[in-house]
Protein 1
Amino acid sequence: MNRIYLDNAATTPVSPQVLEKMLPYFTQHFGNASSIYDTGRDARRAVDAARRQAAAAINAKPQEIYFTAGGSESDNWAIKGAAFARRKKGNHIITTAVEHHAVLHTCQWLEEQGFEVTYLPVDEFGRVSAEQVEAAITDKTVLVSVMAANNEIGTLMPIAQIARVAKEHGVLMHTDAVQAMGAIPVDVEDWGVDMLSLSGHKFHGPKGVGVLYIRTGVKLDSLVHGGAQERGRRAGTENLPGIVGIGEAMEIAAKNQPENAKRQAALRDRLISRLLGEIPDVRLNGHPTERLPGNVNISVRYIEGEALLLRLDLVGIAASSGSACTSGSLDPSHVLLAIGLPHEIAHGSLRFSLSDSTTKQEVDAVAEVLPGIVKTLRDMSPIFPEKEV
């Protein structure tokens, strides 16, 4: 069976070019980058080169790039680090109701430490406005954290406008850009953010490595203590192969972004058009135009998303229902509830996320098989109206 992988928002395969670049750093050039002898200096040069690649990919300075263990750590460090570093100024944080749990759970933990958090509601498309952020800022606000692109419904946020408002009020701005790298242009100067989180495995880099961009002059408390790595701000022996891999992956993602985005958007629109046109009682979730080029999130009424996933898997198609990080939960997606969907419709969500290797034939295969799956499951559903069978 030829399998079709359309869950690239959950993770992507490491590209051959990235893997080739990484392999020597597992066996030949395996030194500790903190060592002063020749093998260690080789490792240090590799880390420095990857830092330059990462910085160039997002229009930052190399000294503003910090390597982490992934997007969740980057989010935790940015939010906790900024909150505690600025606690004398205030204890108020602003975020949104549709953030990744790495942001939401971190903010909830900070509430237990005495911080106050405003979780801004979103509109029916999952967007929050700069005006909402400005209205929520108080003299105690120390941080705004708004994701660049939603991992579930693909909606893009007006990050540059929000960052401008935050700066006008002397408030730090962080964005979780984990889903954005390689999909849309990521430029820290254009956006005006103070901190930005990335995760390598979302854009054909390795798992277990991420980046936190910290603008020069921004003070953060350290999250990981125990050594002088990452210029004394993040302890732990450097993940040398991972760092080499994410540097290479970021360079490739930034270089190929315009072409890949155009191609994926065309396939995305083709799939959306066919699914909405050929299956009754289906709705598109997320913004119709201001969305990631490779994201298709739909809700199919009268059916559980898990049932759809299992049927798709049987015919060799991999997708997801709700957030991949919480797919084991029986609760519907917090993102879909936040955009106003009732539980019974939110439970029937399905996300297809494309990559640069997705083909027209694969998209058409999904569009051809899904209507039959939906009909079969609806025929079995006790809540499907008989008159529509």
Protein 2
Amino acid sequence: MIGRNDLCHCGSGKKYKKCCLQNDSKIKSTNIKLENAQTIYSNLYHKIYNYSSETKFEKEYEKAREIFYVIDDNSLNEKFEKLFNTYFMFDHIMENKKVMSVSFYEELQGNLNSTEVRVLVDLFNSYISIYEIKEKLVDRVVLKNLLTNEEISTEDINLLKEFSVSDIIIARVVKVEDTNILVDITVKITESIKNVIINDVNNLFEKYKDVYKTIDVFLIHHTHIMYRYIQQLLEPKVTEYLKEKMDSTKENLSNEKSTDKDLDEVCNLLKSNVEDTYVNSCIEFWNDYKKSNSNVKGAENGWAAAVEYHIKKEDNQTVTQAEIAKKYATSTSTLGKRYKDLKI
């Protein structure tokens, strides 16, 4: 162990106490805080994971998989398993209109300590976003959230040690006590990809900001959008699949005789989101509805979500408005209104 009066290990020729001692002390303190925060998070994560693995949640598990994964390929999706687990436990809205971690808290709160309760609250408010690394300090990294324009600091210096100032990353920041850690996967992206994602997310938010009010609330309720971007970034097959699906949809739409722009967009959404078993029934129902209702107003996402919900309910499928609404990036209230319109 190096003494205070020994030559500094950095090779400067100065005594350790006059050179790197202060920085090393900061790093040591930060590492202790970080390790403690990661241990708390890991222990709580495994408690919720075990709870979510109970047989009573099997149907919810399958619904969450359907929403989360882009491709139905178990071997390919294995690389996203940890991401999916986080989504299922903290983001997926169940039939009871709650996320798993809320049900976990309500059922087992008597077995949780005050620290775990505080971390759960912070998890409820966490989401994936796009960050720019603004500054790398000895004991923390300053990040700017490019979707909310807020700056935060994370003590997760080891995870970010290979990244540079001005790098753009997709990450999920979770506060554990007084320490911000990054969970799951942190992905570096290019400037062009950043612009595409920010533009897409902002356009979606503009459509529904009367429901969600602020961009961070929107992101909390739509983490599956960001998870889908991550899947595309990590697996080229996902990107290829989505491109082929988009090209196929465009080709089909171009062959349709209807010139009604709103009709085309709703059909487009249905073709992109509904399973093959139901997609034709959904489109036929929507076409019939449009023919008998000439003055249809409102966002296309809401209509598409209501159509899918209606068709599946008619087929006695166990689906919820919250589940379908999240799939189309709309609100349950909008879906409910459009569903009532369809039933009239």
Protein 3
Amino acid sequence: MIQLENISWKTGDRVILADATIEIPANTYAVLMGSTGCGKTTLLEILCGLRSPTTGRVRLDGLDVTDLEPRDRGIGYVPQDLALFPGLKVRDQIAFAPKLRGIPPAEIESRVGRLAQQFGITHLLDRLPDMLSGGEKQRVALARALAAQPKLLLLDEPLSALDEGMRSEAVALLQRVQREHSLTVLHVTHSSSEAAALGHLHLRMNAGRLEVS
């Protein structure tokens, strides 16, 4: 469960978020829409700990995580640019977070193998990011986000770089991943068709506030 309580964030005199409050039940696929620059990405970054809110609290499964480091929040995050590490092979991309958490090497290898199989990227494990297509990079980024076995997955325009033919396949993949991993998902998108296909809960950012749409 995600609980945002009176979250605000501003830069200089510009208010980006103003008293954003919402509750997203566990195992829900929530989609968030809103105009460009309205604060959607800022909200995701506050949730995963990359930004601190000016005011307000963030709670995950009842635990106040507002002051916790990103690695201690149990969150997987896929930013809009996917942010793959250019010098790491796919297997090392997926293994990155478990290594940081001190997971034993045998368990890391097992996780990498399972996720690679689930996402259909086993044959890509020894490739670098610049050898991957857009769809392959997306699958690697999702596998990397799930390698630490998070309860919450944050997705920032994850399908924006895909052409229309690949989007339907990607939507089906996200539905399956959410179901099989019992995830709570918050997915930012500008696509109404994407939101309709995926969302159990539809949210909109309006003047820095969150609304159920």
Protein 4
Amino acid sequence: MKYGNFLFSSESVTEGHPDKIADQISDTILDAALEDDPQSRVAIETFVTTGLVVVGGEMTTKTYIDIPNKVRQTVKEIGYDHSYKGFDHNTCAVISTIDQQSIDIAMGVDKLGAGDQGMMFGFACDETPEYMPLPITLAHRLTMQLAKCRKEGEIAFLRPDGKSQVTVNYRDWRPHSIETVVVSSQHDPLFGGDDPTAAQLKKEHKIIEEEITEKVIVPVLPENLTKKKYKIHVNPTGRFVTGGPMGDAGLTGRKIIVDTYGGFARHGGGAFSGKDSTKVDRSAAYMARYIAKNLVAAGFAQKLEIQLAYAIGVAEPVSVMVETFRTGKASGEEIVKLIRKHFDLTPAGIIKKLGLRKPVFKATASYGHFGRDGFSWEKLDMVNKLHS
């Protein structure tokens, strides 16, 4: 294979995926705390399984949150509103066990330092209008289209749980064509109930495959990348009736590659959902994305990755690194100087610049934290200043 020619795959999941249910519950509780007390410190984890939601972690806030009500409301909005779907907001048990933030951690945050040590990565490239890698962008578009078809009744048999995966053929480091598309969606049993015959299974799968191909896959994929014939796999196992928390347990922070760049860029390992912005796992990753996107939009590179690293209780990052993958119009050292000149990388500076004391986080908890309008870290408001 020629250097620069390769296949790359990324996946996405719908809001009804068990791990994403957990993320959305955690961020719903975070938003509820921030709405009444912007100084709330929150680190919430959620676990979901058949008929059960467990919410745990640490929270220091002046407000009261009706956690069972927030959980049930979120589960209902996702679409699990009846037991036949495998999960029901009315009947699921909700257990919460939440303590205050550790005073040892609080000391570091009180001094306006980072809430923990760690490294965070931000990335941007010029492959798409969103400045995101193409595979994860298309994977998210597919799962969003899947959810849209379900919610609007365009495909009546769909249930909330679903996944997509897109493989892109790159030539000379640039997207050339779509190679393979995988879409799996939970669905109603169309024939034979819980015990279908082989013939019924075959008929059911054919209907599902045709509907999803016609109404989900074809409308989403760009025509210029599908001129070459590509492979399609719809529900490859043949049936996907049992899904959501009944099909698999879900946990906050278990889809960090879906949340970010689909594996196209590195990841520091810290999850986002359920954490307030004093946790640099989240806020510094947002800042790194914001900086990378503005730098690429300003023409400093076609592809750019930033690493920020912090020590607990220390405000300034212990290191800043830039990689431009041989596409840079300036050296990494020069770009780092530019970053330090124009951006405040302290936790307090990041929070102020991006407005992260507001209840804006539930919207991030499905279909990726990056590459979508409406988030402060996606603004291109520093492009001109970077040239000054």
